[in-house]
From TrEMBL:
It comes from Undibacterium rugosum. Residues 84-234 form the SMODS and SLOG-associating 2TM effector domain. This is DUF4231 domain-containing protein. It comes from the Bacteria. The chain crosses the membrane at residues 104-124, 136-154. Pfam families: SLATT_2.
Length: 248
């Protein structure tokens, strides 16, 4: 019985090999590595910067109507890039200024909290008495430490410094993308004076539009990660432990 089964299996394998050789059937993965490759999901086409359509496959016959539509699409893409650049250019200085003010305040309050214990043991100069009084209470140390911690928690939660850096980098990337787009577009026009290659123009529009969305997506993902980190840093440990215990 076992010999018959072996003979049948051998014959089936030979038949499958022959069919595969002539292209009648697809080869079947017979190893764990092959199965992993076959079953691996395809990469998301929306996460890279390659064009959706291969420029070599875009054969658009030249006509004035198509050229007008492409010019309108080009204007729309440039307007969207300019709007994104303007938004980052407006928001970056605001977040940067807020971050600097918070840092200066933290440095000031932290430094004063370290100096006050020494001042309480000293005889203050006459010019300081009208401002601070004859003596300084040591309790001001605790007040300033609490104020410094509050400013630090505020900065960690809102992340103004990180936001400023993200906005500046995104703005620079968008500006570079716009310049590259203009140069590529000019190259297409120069190579085909009078009748530009509409297929290449469409492929370039697709590439630039997807690149713009990708830049904004990456910046948004970084903001989400920073916001989650800020929440964890500013959540009291007792609240975290209570939430973990209750499954919330």
């Amino acid at each position: 019985m076992a010999e018959n089964d072996l003979a049948v299996n051998t014959q089936n394998q030979n038949d499958t090999t022959a069919l595969t050789a002539i292209g009648a059937v697809e080869p079947v993965a017979d190893t764990a590595a092959d199965v992993a490759v076959v079953s691996a999901p395809a990469a998301d086409a929306g996460t890279d910067l390659a064009p959706i359509v291969d420029p070599a496959l875009l054969e658009v016959p030249f006509n004035t109507d198509a050229m007008g539509l492409i010019e309108a699409a080009k204007t729309k893409v440039l307007d969207e890039i300019d709007a994104s650049i303007s938004w980052y250019a407006e928001k970056a200085p605001q977040r940067g200024a807020t971050a600097r003010r918070l840092r200066i305040a933290m440095i000031t309050t932290g430094g004063l909290s370290a100096v006050i214990p020494s001042l309480t043991q000293m005889h203050l100069p006459a010019w300081m008495v009208p401002v601070l009084g004859e003596t300084i209470s040591p309790m001001w140390t605790s007040v300033l430490i609490a104020l410094t911690a509050t400013l630090y928690a505020y900065e960690r939660f809102y992340g103004d410094a990180e936001a400023w850096m993200r906005f500046v980098l995104a703005q620079q990337q968008l500006q570079r993308l716009r310049e590259e787009f203009e140069l590529n577009w000019l190259t297409i026009q120069v190579l085909h004076v009078g009748q530009p290659d509409l297929g290449k123009e469409m492929a370039e529009l697709i590439r630039v539009s997807r690149a713009r969305h990708r830049i904004i997506q990456i910046e948004t993902e970084q903001w989400t990660a920073a916001f989650k980190a800020g929440l964890q840093a500013t959540t009291p440990k007792q609240v975290e432990e209570k939430g973990a215990a209750t499954g919330g």
